[in-house]
């Protein structure tokens, strides 16, 4: 193999983890929400608001991390709204989520236009997050560049996965959470506050999705554009099913999609005469295919989509 | 002092009708805040909105131009939602209909209108129907969730259309991502001279009437209502739930496809990558705000058309970003959900 | 025999829900170390009262005292803290989790991480102390109903409950498992625990309890010691009038078989065998009762006979027509009536008008091409609703506005108005009050009198005994025996239900 090929492969692998990062955050967040019984279709809107808020705060303050934190807080607010609609009011989860996404989709661009565009003709941008190479480890051939020369958020994302798995399966909190998503009546009888748990999980989902969105504007592109998320929120919804609601599998799914995305990008640069949109389509087609492949054995939390009414 | 929530025995009739109206007002009130923060007087902004939508005869025709695809998408989604097939893919079905219909329309130059237009419409319907068929079959046969498949399907179709229009079908004259112009014989005739009010608008309203008949008067409507209410019981009663869901999805997609070809034949006269600024998604809002009822959907579509057309005018007059339109739609839907709660539950304050 | 110390006192409890007063100034006193039965028919308010004690509901009025101190429970956590445990009629278990996880769910603890090992050990210890043996690592969905109930009891004793509330615990047990349960309850009484036993079954109440409180229509109407009363008096207090314990069943002539089932087998939802080589027939003019404890294949049997589930082998004929691979539509067209066990889930579309549910099997008869003649349909619906006594002001109202008994009468109206040659009735009187129960049983006998065949699937052995001409006992998907009711011995039926005996024509 010539050096060129190794460089290409390494580049693709490194890009895989990079591109998977927002998906990891979004899908883990969605896993928490769905494990507690709430389908959060607001995720796409939360990502967009995260991207927009993160960019605006990062741009105006000059501090990207402030942007990330602002995005997370915005995500929590949106999670609270979603929780109010689905948990307290008992609205249909599909509809509440879509309404939130539509509102956020417009609003994310609205606030951007209102605060930024007045500045001038040049598309405002920030210097995206730099990667943080880990000394010594990043010298390892191939693996070094792929795993140990990534953004801070990517490292955090990789840590998020096992931490989430541990919380979900080895702690009392996780047990209570899963019970709420399987049989909320049993959980309530056992003394668990179903409402509080679902509120909490939606806030987690909101915060994580928003961070994922902020990654897109602050780490990937350095800009905010309409359609920045390219429907990645929806991909997260599919990936949760693909991962059978398990955080460790989420990582696999996110890497899969990220990998296809990375391959598709590099294929574009190869210069084939095929319209590049077909490459853009590829990850979505394959996501659908993956969903079909696992649908037979996918076991959703038993109480997903059911609204729980407290009989007081 | 505590809040006591009681379920009503029968949902409040008066509130059910008032809810969409109140939600719209609430949404407009809430949206006044970002307008104000954007440096514009909301009252002035809203007056511009109303004037731009219904203030002049021309404005009204423009509102109707937007009303047509919205109504069709609203009906498409409402029909699917009636049997709980969550068709979020109206956008993609719209584009597919436009694509298939225009494949015929561009080359139909020698076919007289009286034949060409119906054929084009049928092909538009077929295109949309096909793009709804596969998620429906996947749901029925493999239990794949249709929310995800129809949503992702939108993206796939959008890219497919772009690939075609940036690629083999790119307009050789202008170099833009649009198809060659469609044949004159397939243009929807203008019905009000001096405006863009075209045949497609009447067609949309006819489809609304058909939708009314289906839901209120046919066996099929009866079956769909049963499936949406309780598919298990409806199946046990002898109705073939799988078949009806696929049929409903296909018809739903077809109606969205009609919206797509309507845009091509009535407004754009080419197939382009933006024949729809999200009408499919607005269709979801319309279906819910209209409570899935034929009359409700018509009214909600008109309301949304006013908002879409009006915010464009408001944008021209005040500089308020046009993204506000989408925001308002979303907020209307969310306010409506809150309103629906109050129709089902009575809330009292109790001294403890 | 227990002391005189009152450990729980409920005074003047009032609890209402929209449209109904479930508890109407009810008072209840539990003494330490006694087994106190709460007796009443379905809908009398027993479960509601105990849900109030357990903190699941807040009473609208009244007070609760535990050990003499006034308490106000906001949630079950508070009740659990006061050492009260409740075993519900419908188990509050998570099927996808194992026993340990279910037992420790919601337990207050300082530890963030689950300590499975010590929970395992404690469960085994408690299991042997009280005779509640379960394998801690097994998943709930793998356990039998009796074992699941033991997990529920374990949950309570794990939390050191001194006061145990059991809600209709024997509804899902075989006669033998019931004996085991009573043994466990007596053991607990010896260990000083106090037990509230909710039931509507007079025999059991007379066997296990020390004291009995009778509820009727939300009011407490009597409080007696067991030794001072008997079954007949209790029944009168429960219902408010003389209760006739047997129905008159006129002899009829049996006709040709309307249903013939030969060697059918099928799988359940978990792909395990649910029916094994089942054969029987139902003749016109007879009621064949399928007796058995729930979960032995009755649901799958009803599914198969109504076209909702396929058989893996065997043959089914209705009036001579082969329906082995029929769809629900075929069965409707063949005029087979079906009263499903799950009224709300399988029988009715609750959010739609009563009209829709009334015509859902007959609407095709009111069609003109693709159109549905709603006015003719409405006339029909109004007629059958009146004929079968469904109480509603307007058939355009949503079906969920009907009470439980009226829901069942609506289903009956829909099915019987079509004059089916074969009627499959699954748990037709479950959860209904005595009035509705009598009405429905009378209608079943009516159908029998007119020469129709009725397959009665019921977990209520009394019902089977009083209505059926022949009885088939099902156990783990097999028919253990088919006997004539007249000549049948109760012990034999009990043994067949528990799988210990086979007999009769098969």
Notes on the structure:
With 312 residues, chain A is mostly helical. Chain A has a single domain (15-117, 149-295), classed as ABC transporter involved in vitamin B12 uptake, BtuC, CATH 1.10.3470. Chain A is built from twelve helices and two strands; from the N terminus they run ααααβαβααααααα. A two-stranded antiparallel ribbon of chain A has the order 1-2. The longest helix of chain A is centred in the N-terminal third of the chain and has 33 residues, at 3-35. The mean pLDDT of chain A is 87. With 352 residues, chain B is mainly alpha-helical. In chain B, α3 packs across α11 (279-289) and α5 (113-142) packs across α6. The model of chain B has no long low-confidence stretch (mean pLDDT 91). Chain C has 506 residues and is of the alpha/beta class. Chain C folds into two domains: 6-239, P-loop containing nucleotide triphosphate hydrolases (Rossmann fold); 257-335 and 419-501, Rossmann fold. Helices cover 32% and strands 27% of the residues of chain C. Chain C contains 17 helices and 23 strands. Chain C has helices at residues 46-53, 76-81, 99-104, 116-130, 145-158, 175-190, 202-208, 231-239, 298-305, 328-333, 343-347, 354-359, 374-387, 404-416, 434-449, 461-467, 490-497; strands at residues 6-17, 20-31, 35-39, 61-66, 69-71, 84-87, 163-167, 194-199, 211-216, 219-225, 257-267, 273-283, 287-291, 313-318, 321-322, 336-339, 367-368, 371-372, 422-426, 453-458, 470-475, 478-484, 503-504. Chain C has a six-stranded mixed sheet, with helices on both faces. In chain C, α14 runs parallel beside α15. Chains in contact: A-B, A-C, B-C. The interface between A and B is large, with 50 and 50 residues.
């Amino acid at each position: 193999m010539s050096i060129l090929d190794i460089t290409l492969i390494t580049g693709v692998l490194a890009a895989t983890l990079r591109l998977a990062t927002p998906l990891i955050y979004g899908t883990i967040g969605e896993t928490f929400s769905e494990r507690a019984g709430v389908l959060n279709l607001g995720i796409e809107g939360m990502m967009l608001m995260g991207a927009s808020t993160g960019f605006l705060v990062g741009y105006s303050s000059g501090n990207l991390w402030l942007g990330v934190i602002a995005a997370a807080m915005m995500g929590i607010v949106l999670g609270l709204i979603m929780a109010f609609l689905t948990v307290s009011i008992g609205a249909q989860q599909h509809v509440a989520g879509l309404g939130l996404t539509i509102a956020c989709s417009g609003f994310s661009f609205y606030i951007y236009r209102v605060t930024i565009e007045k500045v001038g003709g040049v598309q405002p941008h920030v210097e995206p997050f730099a990667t943080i190479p880990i000394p010594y480890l990043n010298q390892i051939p191939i693996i070094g560049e792929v795993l140990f020369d990534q953004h801070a958020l990517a490292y955090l994302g990789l840590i998020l996965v096992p931490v989430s798995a541990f919380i979900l399966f080895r702690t009392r909190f996780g047990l209570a959470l899963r019970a709420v998503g399987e049989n909320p009546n049993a959980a309530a009888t056992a003394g668990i506050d179903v409402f509080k748990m679902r509120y909490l999980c939606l806030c987690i989902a909101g915060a994580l999705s928003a961070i994922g969105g902020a990654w897109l504007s602050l780490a990937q592109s350095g800009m905010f554009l309409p359609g920045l998320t390219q429907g990645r929120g929806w991909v997260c919804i599919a990936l949760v099913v693909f991962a059978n609601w398990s955080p460790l599998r989420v990582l696999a799914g996110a890497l899969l999609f990220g990998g296809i995305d990375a391959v598709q990008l590099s294929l574009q640069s190869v210069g084939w005469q095929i319209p590049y949109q077909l490459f853009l389509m590829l990850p979505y087609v394959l996501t659908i295919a993956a969903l079909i492949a696992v649908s037979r054995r996918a076991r959703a939390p038993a109480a997903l989509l059911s609204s729980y009414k407290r009989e007081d | 002092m505590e809040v006591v929530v009681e379920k009503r025995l029968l949902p409040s009739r008066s509130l059910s009708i008032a809810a969409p109206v109140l939600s719209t007002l609430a949404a407009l009130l809430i949206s006044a805040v970002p307008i104000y923060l954007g440096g514009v007087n909301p009252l002035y902004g809203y007056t511009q909105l109303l004037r731009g939508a219904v203030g002049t005869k021309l404005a009204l025709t423009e509102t109707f131009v937007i009303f047509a695809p919205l109504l069709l998408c609203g009906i498409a989604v409402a029909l699917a939602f009636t049997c709980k097939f969550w068709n979020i893919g109206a956008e993609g079905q719209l584009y597919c209909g436009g694509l298939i219909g225009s494949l015929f329309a561009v080359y139909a130059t020698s076919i007289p209108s009286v034949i060409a237009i119906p054929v084009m419409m049928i092909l538009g319907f077929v295109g949309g129907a096909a793009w709804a068929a596969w998620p429906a079959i996947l749901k029925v046969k493999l239990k794949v969730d249709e929310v995800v498949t129809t949503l992702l399907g939108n993206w796939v179709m959008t890219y497919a259309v772009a690939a075609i229009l940036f690629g083999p079908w790119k307009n050789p004259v202008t170099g833009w991502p649009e198809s060659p112009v469609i044949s004159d014989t397939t243009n929807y005739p203008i019905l009000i001279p001096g405006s863009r009010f075209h045949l497609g608008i009447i067609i949309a309203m006819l489809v609304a009437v058909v939708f009314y008949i289906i839901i209120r008067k046919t066996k099929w409507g009866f079956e769909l209502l049963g499936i949406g209410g309780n598919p298990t019981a409806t199946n046990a009663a002898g109705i073939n739930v799988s078949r009806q869901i696929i049929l409903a999805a296909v018809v739903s997609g077809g109606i969205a496809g009609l919206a797509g070809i309507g845009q091509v034949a009535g407004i754009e006269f080419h197939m382009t990558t933006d024949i729809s600024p999200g009408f499919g998604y607005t269709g979801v809002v319309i279906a819910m705000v209209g409570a899935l009822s034929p009359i409700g959907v018509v009214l909600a579509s008109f309301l949304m058309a006013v908002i879409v057309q009006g915010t464009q005018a408001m944008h021209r007059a005040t500089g308020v970003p046009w993204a506000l339109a989408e925001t308002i739609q979303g907020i209307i839907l969310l306010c409506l959900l809150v309103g629906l709660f109050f129709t089902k539950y009575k809330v009292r304050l109790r001294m403890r | 025999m227990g002391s005189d110390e009152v450990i729980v006192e409920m005074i003047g409890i009032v609890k209402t829900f929209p449209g109904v007063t479930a508890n109407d100034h009810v008072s209840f006193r539990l003494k330490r170390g006694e087994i106190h039965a709460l007796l009443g028919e379905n809908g009398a308010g027993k479960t509601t009262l105990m849900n109030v004690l357990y903190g699941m509901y807040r009473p609208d009025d009244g007070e609760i005292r535990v050990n003499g101190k006034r308490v106000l429970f906001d949630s079950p956590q508070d009740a659990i803290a006061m050492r009260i445990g409740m075993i519900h009629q419908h188990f509050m278990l998570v099927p996808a989790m194992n026993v340990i996880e279910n037992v420790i769910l919601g337990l207050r603890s300082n530890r963030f991480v689950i300590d499975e090992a010590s929970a395992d050990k404690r469960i085994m210890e408690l299991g042997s102390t009280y005779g509640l043996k379960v394998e801690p690592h097994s998943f709930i969905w793998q356990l039998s109903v009796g074992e699941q109930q033991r997990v529920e009891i374990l949950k309570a004793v794990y939390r050191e409950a001194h006061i145990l509330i059991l809600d209709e615990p024997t509804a899902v047990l075989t006669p033998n498992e019931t004996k085991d349960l009573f043994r466990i309850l007596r053991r607990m009484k010896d260990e000083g625990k106090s037990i509230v036993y909710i039931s509507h079954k007079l025999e059991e109440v007379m066997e296990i309890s020390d004291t009995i409180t009778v509820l009727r229509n939300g009011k407490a109407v009597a409080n007696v010691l067991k030794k001072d009363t008997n079954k007949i008096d209790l029944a009168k207090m429960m219902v408010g009038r003389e209760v006739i314990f047997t129905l008159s069943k006129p002899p009829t002539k049996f006709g040709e078989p309307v249903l013939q089932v030969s060697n059918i087998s099928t799988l359940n939802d978990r792909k395990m065998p649910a029916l094994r080589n089942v054969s029987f027939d139902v003749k016109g003019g007879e009621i064949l009762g399928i007796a058995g404890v729930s979960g032995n294949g009755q649901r799958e049997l009803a599914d198969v006979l109504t076209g909702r589930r396929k058989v893996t082998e065997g043959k089914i004929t209705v009036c001579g027509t082969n329906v082995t691979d029929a769809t629900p539509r075929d069965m409707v067209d063949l005029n087979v009536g079906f009263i499903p066990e799950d009224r709300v889930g399988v029988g009715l579309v609750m959010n739609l008008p009563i009209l829709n549910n009334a015509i859902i099997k007959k609407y095709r008869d009111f069609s003109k091409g693709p159109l549905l003649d709603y006015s003719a349909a409405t006339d029909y619906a109004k007629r059958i609703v009146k004929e079968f006594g469904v109480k509603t002001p307007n058939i355009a109202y949503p079906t969920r506005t009907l009470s439980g008994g009226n829901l069942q009468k609506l289903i009956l109206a829909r099915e019987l108005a079509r004059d089916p040659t074969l009627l499959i009735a699954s748990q037709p009187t479950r959860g209904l009050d005595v009035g509705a129960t009598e009405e429905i049983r009378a209608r079943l006998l009516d159908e029998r009198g007119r020469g129709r065949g009725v397959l009665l699937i019921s977990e209520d052995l009394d019902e089977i005994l009083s209505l059926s001409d022949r009885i088939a006992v099902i156990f783990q998907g097999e028919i253990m025996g088919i006997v004539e009711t007249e000549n049948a011995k109760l012990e034999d039926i009990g043994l067949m239900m528990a799988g210990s005996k086979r007999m009769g024509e098969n």
